[in-house]
Amino acid sequence: MTLTPLVYWAQRHEEIYLRVELTDAQNIDVHVHEKVLQFRARGHGAKGLNEYEFNLEFISPVKPEVTHRSTQRQVNITVRKEQRGWWERLVVQERKPVFLAPDFDSWLDDLISCLNDFSFFLSNISGFVSLKTGFLFIYNLVQFLGFSWIFVNMTVRLFIFGQDSLYDTFHTISDVMFFCQILAAVEVLNAAFGVVRTGVIPTLIQVVGRNFILFIIFGSLEEMHNRPVVFFVFYLWSSIEIFRYPFYMLGCFNTEWKTLTWLRYTIWIPLYPLGVIAEAVAVIQSIPIFHETKLFSIPLPKAIGTSIGFSYFLHIYLVLMFLGLFINFRHLYKQRKRRFRTKKRKAN
Ligand SMILES: CCCCCCCCCCCCC[C@@H](O)CC(=O)SCCNC(=O)CCNC(=O)[C@H](O)C(C)(C)COP(=O)(O)OP(=O)(O)OC[C@H]1O[C@@H](n2cnc3c(N)ncnc32)[C@H](O)[C@@H]1OP(=O)(O)O
Asked: How does it sit in the membrane (predicted)?
């Protein structure tokens, strides 16, 4: 008849511990094949000095290497789980074998270690959520909410009112866009003071470029308010921001969602040129209006008798825009390469 020793078990996320109640155990043979652990040894158990053995078929796969250590009172066996995780029970069959019992001492150790882990996590978190992280997170959250509101509002209005919605974008959206774009000046400061790892020039080009269109071209000319170009400019701007800001928010906690990262570093490829083209259309449409109204024109001395129209500056600005497009396109291309190259290297 086969004699089985008493076996106590416990688990951690990566390991299984078995404590076999055999004193002075000798000729210990323990190995794992597939999910089954086989144990055989000679020692003093419940039925005196005898051969004892047992088999356990684990509920999940384990690594084939087993370590064991015998003391005068028991044999301790450690088996490594194939995949990290918490098992709902030890063995495949729902009714546990009679010789098997939970090892409460070890569970207690486990509980203590869990509490230690938790307090370590808490102490880390409190250090981690520094002032800078908190500030960046809130900033990105506010921008994300603002641009999401813009994007969703414009999309819903497009579905409900169709083409008509293109003509009143400025009236319905501009207040939130003003708010978000004024706030975006913070990004220039962040870059200038090294709060985030990015160049000042690309950020300045981005913020100044957009605010020029928003405040000077759209904001100061009522004639522009009902033009469909406002819709295209606002829609293109918000289309990138609803991905860029949540990407930064996750970054604040060293977390990433691969799809979001891919979107943040990819959809600018079509959006940026389209955005610049839409902005250029807005500038071109505003030129005759500035010309007629003489708004922002600089009067010259009476002797010369004329003024320098703002529309001249707009011609120069059109050239600057494409220069800006080139600089920022190159910058974003480099950022994309850096991001995906670093990721690939980390993966290797
Ligand atoms: C100098 C005078 C100016 C004269 C202007 C005249 C010319 C004007 C031409 C203007 C053309 C503008 C056209 C434009 O308006 C059209 C459009 O926007 S269309 C829509 C598509 N647009 C886009 O896709 C651009 C979106 N914007 C951006 O991407 C940024 O503003 C830009 C500055 C262009 C690039 O961003 P950045 O350099 O910051 O790259 P990363 O996102 O890779 O960030 C680098 C690292 O910094 C961390 N970071 C950055 N910001 C934050 C933040 N707010 N919170 C937390 N962390 C942040 C980021 O995580 C990266 O860190 P790591 O590398 O460690 O991951």
From this structure: Multi-pass membrane protein
Q: What separation in Å is there between the alpha carbon of 206 and the centre of ligand 1?
A: 7
Shortest CA distance to 172 belongs to which of 245, 230, 217? 230
What are the pLDDT digits (tens) for 107-162? 666 666 656 665 555 555 555 458 899 999 999 999 999 999 999 999 999 999 99
The CATH 2.60.40.790 domain(s) of the chain lie at 7-126
pLDDT of the residue at 320: 96
CATH number of the domain located at residue range(s) 7-126 in this protein: 2.60.40.790
Ligand 1: which of 248, 256, 314, 338 to mutate, judged by most atoms within 8 Å of the beta carbon?
248
Q: Which residues of the chain fall below pLDDT 50?
A: 128, 347-348
The per-residue pLDDT for 348 is 45
Mutate to test the pocket of ligand 1, among 180, 188, 198 (most ligand atoms within 8 A of CB): 198
Comparing CA positions, the residue from 180, 204, 177, 176 lying closest to residue 190 is 204
Helix or strand (DSSP H, E) at 51: strand 48-57
ipTM of the complex: 0.97
Which residue's CA is the nearest one to ligand 1's atom 64? Answer: 197
Q: What share of the chain is helix, strand, coil (3-state, %, to 5)?
A: 60, 20, 20
DSSP string, 57-93: EBSS-EEEEEEEEE-SS-EEEEEEESS-S--S-SBSS
